[in-house]
Amino acid sequence: MYERKIPEMLDCGLSVAVKVVGGKWKAWIMDCIRRGIKRPSALQRELAEVNPRIVSMQLKELEDLGIIRKEIYAEIPARVEYSFTPTGESLLPVLDVLEKWGTDNREEVLKNTLELSEN
């Protein structure tokens, strides 16, 4: 298991929020679950360009943080589904605001990204 050399500073709300939604795929995974994609195989199909190991790691981290829960049904074959905890549900309006900001500012960010890559 990975052990951090530098301790995390989680004494401000913003650092806690970034820990939860930061990273390349967590917000996208949470959006998938919000849209009703709850099974690991369906998540993998939706996130086809992401290594399945990475998706599993991000799901586990979101579960460990108390944002989502994993439910294993006693069926053959076993069925697994992810859903939001109350803490995760409380994060959905934040995702809405982030998505709106991204939509509203997409052109400017893309323009600046292209300018950086040209230099």
UniProtKB/TrEMBL annotation:
Known InterPro entries for this protein? HTH_HxlR (IPR002577), WH-like_DNA-bd_sf (IPR036388), WH_DNA-bd_sf (IPR036390)
Q: Which PROSITE patterns match?
A: HTH_HXLR
> Could you say which residues form the signal peptide?
none
**An example molecular function term from Gene Ontology annotations:** DNA binding
Q: Which Gene3D superfamilies match?
A: Winged helix-like DNA-binding domain superfamily/Winged helix DNA-binding domain
Which domain of life does the protein's organism represent?
Bacteria
Record keywords, A-Z: DNA-binding, Transcription, Transcription regulation
Q: What is this protein called?
A: Helix-turn-helix transcriptional regulator
